[in-house]
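--- STAGE predict ---
source: upstream dedup step, 1 unique chain passed
mode: sequence only
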Amino acid sequence: MGRVEQDFMYDWNNIPRRATVSSFYINQTEISNFHWLEYLYWVKRVYGVDYPELYKKALPDTLVWRQKLAYNEPYVDYYLRHPAYRDYPVVGVNWLQATDFCSWRTDRVNEYILIREGLFRDYPDQIGEDNFNTEAYFANQYSSSNKIDGLPNLNPTSSGYRNVRMEDGILLPKYRLPTEAEWEFAAFGLIGNSIGERVVERRLYPWNGHAVRNPDEAYIGMMLANFKRGRGDNMGMAGKLNDNADITAPVFSYWPNDYGLYNMAGNVSEWVMDVYRPLSFEDMEDFRPFRGNVFKTKERDNEGLLVDKYDIPTYDIPGLIKYLSDFLDEAGNSLNDQESELISTLQQQAEDAKQQLADDNKYEANVIIVEESIEAIKGSDETVKIAPVLLKDYSSYIINRPGELRYRETKVDENIDRRNYKRADNINYLDGDPKSHLNELSWSNYEEQEQRPETAEMYIYPGQGLSQQDYASLINDQARVYKGASWNDRAYWMVPGTRRFLDERQALSTLGFRCAMDRVGSPVGLGGSR
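--- STAGE serialize ---
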């Protein structure tokens, strides 16, 4: 993996290397607008009355279509919801929203399996925390008057029925985003040009050869993907459209690769799980490589029992503090007195919530204080024009939904006897952590040692209490990798080895995603000998 046509960007962020990924499943197509509208309908039906902010969080950013010197308002108005675009890939979705969709899909599919197997009744009246969540169900924390008894309990010391367990093999593993290595492996589809363990023809794109047009006689000259052929040429000439798409195309367009996957080159770029680092593949393992691990464990009480699942939304309080600070910096003198006063109030409440979290008062922080902030925004008068923006942005900092099981990061003192890891957060490992910081000897390269920040961190970025002139990098722990070309990219980006990054809270009109799932057990199936 990592081979590109030519590194004309001179990023030097990829090198050809050999890696192994386990067998996995991946969507045949990108997630479409139709899929996302189903998701929105469910979120609004379940959370819309008590927690409308969860619906706001799930809404794609349709304003990504706007350009200062282009007329794209029709896409702003129609692309997501008009039935003409129902089978087009969803865009305007950030990394966090894509991850939420994967979690939601896990629960809906497993709920359907239980209904199909006669273990659950269809229960469309779910609301608030009373919604099916796979992990909460495994932990016996999902109860509903519509639930059937379950499987017969064959334990001789017990009687009656029990819930389905993971050991029964009835429910599926989690949906998730693919890792960068998995996505690249799937895009190349090398199964189609290999004999045994020998690749007989080098592949630049998800198809054989180095051309972007179909060489087959029946389709000769037709574009193999939806991309931008040249400046001002998004779809060719009138009467002979070279790729038959001005922006995106339906998800089943063009020819699939040898794995049967559509649009692994072109149409939209796609989010993957990884946190971006320029030199990731000099550091990462060669088996299932991935950067982004933050190890967590289920929360338990003093008796070792699992604590109750969330019955309220919880927020990223430090993220809200940073957001309000950045909002004030960006808005500057454009705020009127009432708006400035509101931001000041929200900042004080966010600091109070942070203190409550430090004292382990999560309910006080998330329900009392944050909800007070939301009510303050809603209750502001008509002179506060920023209220709708604040409401939408506050919703994007929700990190847990009612009905989900509680997790926390593992602690170092829990891993005293471990050799494979100590800390929970390993995003910076070997690239940004203390072991990779500049040391005092290397500081001699700078004119004035005192001009460098005391921490001498490799990736210094907004939010660390630094002034803008001290920023050293756009890269941080929220920078996520996205792969592949889009409808607005040149052919270079269709090479699966290319990689780019974007903040996990940002979205583009050229960026979508597809889901993946682990394959458990044999990589070739039951009874397979190879």
